[in-house]
Here is the input.
Amino acid sequence: MQCIKRNAFKFILGSLSIFLATPNLALAKEYFDPGMLNIGDGSTKIYNNEDLSLFNDLDSLPGEYKLDITINNNRMEHRSIYLYASKIDEDHQQLAPCFQANEFEHYGVNIPKPVSVIQLENGQQCVDWASLSYAKSELDLHNNQLVLQFPQAQIVQERIDYFERKYWDNGIPAFRLDYNISEFSNRNNSKTENSTFASLQSGINWGAWRFKQDSTWSHDTQGNDKWKNLSTTLSRNIPSIDSEIVLGNNYSSSAIFEGVKLRGAILQTDRTMRARRFNSYAPGITGIADSESIVSVYQNNNLIFKKSVPAGPFYITDYNPLSNGGNMTVEITGVDGQVKRQIIPFTSLAFLERKGNLNYHVALGRYDGEYDNKHEFLTQAEVIYGLTDYVTMAAGAQLSQHYQAFSFGQGINLGKFGAISANVIHAVSDFENNVDYPDNTKKEDAFTKEGNAFKLNYSKSFTPTNTSLNFAGYKYFSSGFYNFNDVMRYNSGSKFESSIHDPIVSMNDKIKHQYNVTMVQTLPNQWGSVSLNATSYNYRDRRDLQSYNLGYMLSRNKINYGLYYTYYNDTDVSQNASQGNYSISFNISMPLFTAKKPVYASYNVGRSVSGQNNHIVQLNGLAGDRLQASWNIYQGYDDKNYGGVSGSYNSPFAHFNAGYSYRGSDQHSVNANVAGTFLATQYGALMSKPLQATNALIVTKKVGGIKAINSSTATTTNTGLAVYPGLSPYRKNQIALDTQSIPENAEIDETIISQIIPTKGALILADFKARQGYKLLLTLDGDGQSIPMGAKAIFDENKTAMVASFNQVYMLSEQEKGQVNVNWTVNGQEKSCTAQFDLTKTEAVNGLYLIKTACVDQQTTPHTVQH
Here is the structure.
């Protein structure tokens, strides 16, 4: 009831403010006639004439309010807080929140001591906001928000993160079925082959639990049907340890060892649960501030972090570098304007962790791979720990009856020399004597092999030359090293080709050395960039394989140029045989139109080692009012004409794709694909385009056609449901509706829902509290007497509205014909009148019915005002 009173006062004051803003009205100070209002229900205090004098300065009365409290743009909680009238000066006052000093500490704000307090008339003691330097309090009663700002030096970020966790949302119960069905038809000369492939993923959400089942189905012209169950898992998050547990069929981690498919349990760190600043590696920044200072961190001339620190030593870790490389410049600006600078060399690898971060992975279960060793039980454990700001340690083990492997590694940030990580794996493999050779001449006894694997990775960004050596890797495998899957393959009893060197033929196919290099060089004066990807493999059978990809990219005046060279060589050294080939190509693309729906044209010419030239011209573009459709047409020639056309469409119900291509006169192919999701919840069921792992269900209560901003397909159905895909788990998300799409016969008070923090895999409820009906603006004829502003209008049995200035009432009614009862109190007497409305004979103007109707007086009754 008190909330209704406050909203009434806000509405009335808003109307009065419009009236007072009318030209030719000049007032020295706003004054509201206390006799205009008298509100109360007998159960609580009724504000009398003296109480209403508060409105000369305040929009609302002091009292308890339920508000969203945010501190430095971080939402803390929704709670009741007392707002009191605080004097700004002798003539003005404003509402201020009442906090005790320990409440600030509870929120992670360390305010300076001693704290000045003020005593309220109701006996409460509150921190005096005027005594808090640089602290600000902004009250937004319209959105029920209290926005607090404090100097960054007073904030304890860990406590801010703790309060954010309280709003993690596991979502609503739901069943979903994701499907992806493809049909292919290929005709070569007179022979036609058709095939169908379907991928199905079903899932159930219940609280924090996630059940998932993945399977595939295929069918071909010969009538072969194959159904395969890929995995079945049950998982949930464990926020107290930033982890998740997965039960069922899953793959173990491949961070250190080769991943293994298991049927069992996995417990592992979920890095997304951590605050964003702890998700990537960054060295701590240390320094000394001579006074209260501002610390600014720049990387590649971009300001990436800024924080206030008190005088004395500081240590900063809550920042996020822009990339995996590039030195950082730290500026310390004191109150006197003096600036001190220092350079922090920085390069990162995936292996590196922030100081104190612990990532772990523990997998227990039976082998569930493609070979028949279902009895083999495997335990795998991996631990990665940030020992210091520059050193990360890693260790792991894989243990089973026939395989034992141990690993130890280290990652180091070398500062200006880059970052490096290295790890070694020692493996002991036990092989059984169950291999039958094709010639049946030999059968080995059981034997054991021991060997080592060594892996080295390096990364470095050379800032002066804009060179990024993102990854350079080297791997070495000794002759006795095998991974777990090798042992399972051999011990399964499968037949292999014979070998005079080793009973395991795959030994001759094993890699001895491997090199990988990825480099990007940015050229000066915006002349584009050059990229290189190089890989080299050396096998134990003396076979070598090299692959090189070199590219040059340039963009000028919206025209993109590309020159590419590709080389691939598979050499059998023992037979002096080489299968090397190369290709070189040039591509140019440009927009033909720069409108909302652009069309692009491109031309590509290439030449291969065989001397064959290839030319291709292509047009592609987007279509639809929300760019939900795309199309592509191409025509090419090498030794034959070839070409094709394809298109895709993202509907609210599914994603469709189809294409046709030909080569010469004897080869033709047609393909079609449909993908989507069926979703069932307590609010109803609907079809949607393919969803991501974490999504939101938009509910507008049977109001259809409403679109969501930043989504090409999220449009509510006739039942008022839509799915907003792709929320970020454990991060703040916001969903906004397109107000232009709201039908004329509907209203939504708040079209933006913010502070959505879903857990991974959740389906979040986004209920926009939509209302549907006829919009009316009634002008009441009071039958000779004035109906005061603030009078209560009741319609549709129990809905309420309030009379504004000029006897006008705005309301949203579900009925075309109805009655409005108006009640108010004057001089202690309750009065009322009744008005009728009929919309069947009236045309709406932009969805609004403008009606003037008589309000017939009812008998008055005495009423005593309580003071």
Q: What stands out?
A: The radius of gyration is 36 Å.
